[in-house]
Description:
This protein has 79 residues and is mainly alpha-helical. It has helices spanning 2-16, 19-24, 26-42, 48-76.
Amino acid sequence: xTDVKSMxxxxxxxxxxxxxxxxxxxxxxxxxLHKHAEVLERLGVxxxxxxxxxxxxxxxxxADAAEVFMAELAHRSEP
Length: 79
């Protein structure tokens, strides 16, 4: 199970670190991260504490992407 956990967490973090996904479709990135983590917890690959930690990381990434988007939008509307 350790190999599966290691591989799945690498995949999860690869999506978390995907700057293009965060920039273009942060809501889909966030949803995919949450769903992946939920499935891992349901299958017993991670526990409830790890699920909470992964979801917090996903939400922080989404918040960062939203902040960048709002800053870019404000910059574009400047005269």
